[in-house]
Design a protein that fits this description.
2 copies of one chain form a homodimer.
Chain A lengths: L2 H6 L16 H10 L9 H8 L4 H51 L5 H5 L18 H7 L2 H6 L5 H4 L2 E8 L6 E7 L9 E8 L2 H4 L4 E6 L12 E9 L7 E9 L15 H11 L1
Chain lengths: ~280, ~280
């Protein structure tokens, strides 16, 4: 980012970590300490070795504890379902606010205060200012993690970012991010999306990221922000001092790499790793 | 931890991060990306400077966005309340499971399978094994963060740890951890507690840790696990070669330091820091 852009970023809008998904920073730090529970051990072979020395009475008690844990897990599954429903309910309640925000930001709808404002002399210059230019760039730049993803070369494209929204999956913990763009010189897509397919926490006790998909961007000619073309001097084969200049295209850092489809490690890969270690 | 203890720790029980507080690891990683919202800026002075250059129409639109955000915050507050209620409801539903677990672990109640077991010859040795010895030590040692807090000197005291439980505050996001001990040679307290006073997330948009309190442990004579007494040779003042041996008591690493009351930085301290930086 340029200094000017950096100086601009510290006001007006920011990404809000408290987003209605039930995530709270303090929870994350304290949750692990907060409650302690017996967990089913999946490494049964190892366990058998280790437990072989325990008195039989103790083993029978451990077995009872395991059954107790299974019964509690069923109740926890109900909790996860209710929590999910609550989150979906509020996600729907937030939509009218997001919709109105998008209208104001893009200028699709004017706010009353502007309409009521009497036309004064200086206003002539402002005729063309529609909505809130740069709103989303500022919002994203105010988030430390996102700010690092945005590079100077991306800034011109962000002028055309009209709205960003997220939609949770109804059936699991996944969600889909949508970036809406207006007509722009960079790509022809109207929306760029990134979707996270996240398993149901109640199944395995822990939500697992199963898959991530992104939009393939249809870049306009020579406008690909994720690539740079370098001119390289190349010496001709066997030639003495003769050389020619060729172009070489390489991937480069850009926010738009965010949409590049991610390859997830397969279960087979996991097994390979395991085999290599054993 | 000794090697033996370390070898014992990898089975049977473990601390469960998925504890019904709505915390999920994946949420933590993705929540910040998931939804983007306008946030009220508290640094009004800076903001005024930065916004002075914006056209008046845009300022009026930003004002409308701010009001929209405030209206949404009220709905979010309702969400936080409902979520809290849901968590409390399930915390209550989990209690019978925790209660039964404590009974089995401490041996307060025998499990049916043991009672039904016919008495065989080898059982004579087992007569005295009550409940599940070392259950909580194993549970805590299976958690990477907690394992680092537990030192070899603490192990003997953990034999007397009968139960660990957590209770959420009804009115805010705080909670209280209680460690129940049976009669032991180390301290006279029956319970050691640590309480986290955590603000309501709906007030400021972010849960804030306001205060942490811990139990002052009544150590029995010479049994304080949080202190070591060292013998130090001390040369007499002005004496030539004369010296005496004195005892010096120093704090040392122990799990039980966990209960040492924490001094929270006051708001005045915050101001001092701010003044130092400006």
């Amino acid at each position: 980012m340029s200094d000017k852009a950096a100086a601009e970023q510290d006001t007006v809008v920011e990404v809000d970590a408290n987003d209605g998904r039930g995530f709270q920073p303090v929870d994350a730090a304290t949750a692990q300490l907060a409650q302690l529970a017996v967990a089913e051990d999946t490494q049964e072979a190892e366990e058998d070795d280790d437990l072989a020395n325990l008195p039989k009475k103790v083993l029978l008690r451990l077995d009872a504890l395991r059954k107790l844990q299974e019964a509690q897990a069923e109740v926890e599954e109900e909790f996860e379902k209710e929590r999910k429903q609550l989150e979906l309910k509020y996600e729907k309640l937030y939509q009218p606010f997001y919709h109105q925000r998008a209208e104001i930001v893009t200028g699709a709808k004017e706010v009353d205060a502007v309409s009521a404002e009497p036309q004064t002399e200086g206003d002539a210059d402002e005729e063309d200012v529609k909505g809130v230019p740069g709103f989303w760039l500022r919002a994203l730049m105010n988030h430390s993690v996102l700010a690092d993803l945005i590079h100077e070369r991306d800034l011109a494209a962000f002028e055309f970012l009209a709205d960003v929204h997220s939609a949770s999956h109804e059936e699991d913990n996944g969600f889909k991010l949508t970036f809406e763009f207006s007509e722009n010189p960079f790509f022809t897509n109207k929306t760029l999306t990134k979707e996270y397919d996240i398993g149901d926490a109640s199944e395995s006790g822990e939500a697992v990221l199963r898959n991530v998909t992104g939009t393939v961007i249809d870049w306009k000619e020579s406008q690909n922000l994720c690539e740079v073309t370098k001119k390289v001097k190349q010496r001709a084969k066997g030639g003495k001092g003769e050389s020619r200049v060729i172009s070489r295209t390489e991937p480069c850092d850009s926010f738009f790499q965010f949409f590049t489809p991610v390859e997830m490690p397969s279960e087979e890969d996991d097994e390979d790793v395991r085999a290599a270690w054993s």
